[in-house]
Amino acid sequence: MGAKKKDDRMSFAQTFVSGGIAGVASRSITSPLDVIKILAQVGTKETSGGFFKSFANLYRAEGLKAFWKGNGIACVRLFPYNAVQFAAFTYLKKMFSDADGVLTPVRALTAGSLGGIVATVATYPTDMVKTRLTIQHSGGDAKYKGMMDCFRVVLREEGMKAFFQGMSTSIVGVIPFAGGTFMAYEFLERVWGKPKHLLTPYENFLNGCAAAAFAQTFSFPFDTIRKKLQAQAKGKGGDVYYEGMIDCFSKTIKKEGIFGLWRGTTANLAKVAPYAGIMFATFEACRRVCLHWNGYTAGYLDATPIPGVPQNLKPHELKEWMEKQKK
Predict the structure, then answer these.
(1) What is the mean pLDDT of residues 265-272?
(2) Where are the annotated Solcar repeats, by residue (predicted)?
(3) What is the CATH number of domain 2-326?
(4) Which sequence spans correspond to the domains of the chain?
């Protein structure tokens, strides 16, 4: 009986698609901040004057479209990444939660971390291509003509191994980030002192912002090292050549000091907070649409349960229940 309190009202496919939509929406809206963050991490001349001056420098050099460089490949990557991450986390949440559907902080951290690891491994090559497209300059000296061309050139010149440069660092980094984000978000949902379905989009947005800011502060050095490893194409990009994760950490600290691991953190925090806020708010909005579509709630954006409709049934079980009520 207790297990029935766990939330099974969305199908796996609905959770998967909702997560993907949330990722694409949040990435597209915050793309300018992500571009500046990556350029700062890799170490390009446009970001030498600081965070705010970087926007003017990049605009003068390449125009407005430069702020959405790599956004297409980022969305191609983020749809499956977020879809897998949310679907995996939701599945693991049901597995790890208690009879009332509540996760302990440790189990929330574990579920979030495992979901992030699965998503990272599944989509890493597209993330590497996104980084290469982002750091190259537009115009005649651009090495890659687009997403597919980048895949072809990297495969021809550097081999399959190049698509997974920095993945071990990424996996190490995703454990505190994804785990910390979902753990903090689960906790913050309870801070408001009201049922989850009564939280407003603004409250969901604030929860996502706070959760990601907390997690990203601790995992940012791994993200910096990952970007440096991804960016070192033959002949272009980056500021130093690195032989691996440990070597990259060592050379970065030697050249820039310990705080070099947090280079670009201002741009990243300015980006990651609204990114996560939009992502979680969008996912919750998609979730409410699905719950109403499945027959559980009062409206597409109103998560109030319909009186008399059992909320402990899975979608196909509720459909069967509704059919019986009509007879």
Answers:
(1) 76
(2) 10-95, 103-191, 199-289
(3) 1.50.40.10
(4) 2-326
